[in-house]
Input
Amino acid sequence: MNPNMMEALHELAAHKGISTETLLTVLADAIDAAYKKMPGAEEFAWTEIDAETGEIRVWAQELGEDYELLGEPYDVTPNDMGRIAAQAAKQVMNQRIRETEREMKYEEYAGREGGIVTGIVQQTDSRYTLLDLGRVEALMPQSEQVPHERAHAGDRVKAYIVEVRMTAKGPQIVVSRTHPGLIRRLFEMEVPEIEDGIVEIKACAREPGQRTKIAVWSNDPNIDPVGACVGARGARVRQVVNELRGEKIDIVPFSDDEIEFVAKALQPARVREVRIHRDLGTAEVIVPDFQLSLAIGKEGQNARLAHRLTGLRIDIRSETEDAQSEYQPYGESADYADGEWVVDEATGDQMWQPADGSDPISLDEWNKMNAEGEAAAEPEGETAAEPEADGGADSEDAPDGDAPADTADGDIDEPAIDQPGDEAAEADETT
Output
């Protein structure tokens, strides 16, 4: 091999990102294939290339009947391999270079599952988005993309590595923008205390593109885990929010006390009382009347995230509701009032909006109507207390308690609140 050939090999190795030793091995395999294409080629032969001088030698050795090696190796290096042999060498070398490149790319990313990468959007359609990671491409399926998040060619985005697999076309890297692990990795990048292990993210619940709740814990009593994640004037959490394109993030302190943890998980709502039912895996939460809608969240989102964060099914009840009814075991039916609590955009006050479309009722009016209904329902209680008069109270006439809303599947039912005047109607029937 002349010096120019060795220089060309070094340049090719640098261009392909392959070591010169690997490329020499590939060249040796190509010469082996070319030699076997020559007429009169020995049955057992191999090629050796000197890495310093580039000298090429083809050696052969005789084989016995049982394929044992006989005698000493001898030099069979041809002066000219011919056109057919040269073509065979070229094909083998190109194929081996491609295979080596694929193997190197796969090994580079195979151990990085669960990590984060930064890529440039190459193309996107309804099926997937391709990210250019430099030497390889990453595939982001539609299921791993944030709803309503539109990526454009040339955009630089961060993604979470879900899977690295080897295919016939080479390594395939599957990334995600919806995986909860993305939140963890982004905070590790922005919060040195998390990267150092001082602050831990104990739990994470996410609805991609909308809201995320994380529970954090500090191994150092002198470091506030929430403050560390928020940063000065919210600088750290703002970086994460910007990368997630405006997704809201709630950071709450983790606690081994389930009662305290459930109360913190429902932030920003203020919780009055938490009752844990460990045998049922549920938590009954009592909140002020004006906090009911905030605790449940838009379409039950706050309650769903709190359920995923704590692992408990959460039933949220207002103080008025809790005072008017006795707690029933989980799973019993409940009659829910027709309507919902809403917040007046003009005043910010809590209002009850009947389902029939009538005018909203203020909280004071609601409490007053409930008080009048309780007063009207007192004769019913007196009648039920006199078994001599009617033979005892029928269990069917007793007011049903409200069953907690099951948040296990993420669906939050409207809170059970009695309609004004129901008690009075029942009292008229009994009298």
In short: The first strand starts at residue 45 and ends at 49. Residues 32 and 138 are 36 Å apart (CA to CA).
